[in-house]
Amino acid sequence: MFCRNCANQMDDKAAVCVRCGVPAGVGTSFCPNCGSATAPQAALCVNCGVYFSAPPPASDAKSKTAAGILGILLGGFGVHNFYLGFTSKAVAQLLITVLSCGILSPVSAIWGLVEGIMILTADTYLDAAGNPLKN
Length: 135
Fold this sequence. Notes:
By secondary structure, this protein is an all-alpha fold.
């Protein structure tokens, strides 16, 4: 086990890290399984695939197929990004389409088409909360 605060290797039964004094399991900087650096909001380690908390129930996971089809059909309006929780990206796509009175809508449409195809063809695609999409 590794300290989530400083990445020091710890005994599995240790209550606190001997290097930094932080209780075991506290921190968001490192993976407790492999010790690699992680993003503070990450739900799982991209290096070893271990969840930092319990994986989301399958019923709460967003649909990969729905997100991909929304990206292909309504990508110019950013609907797939709203669905996945990427609101700033979705608002950008929507504003490009609406504020240009449709003149730049092909740009947003191509952007959405590419993202829709990427969602459908990726082995694992994560939503904004870092949860993997269900098939």
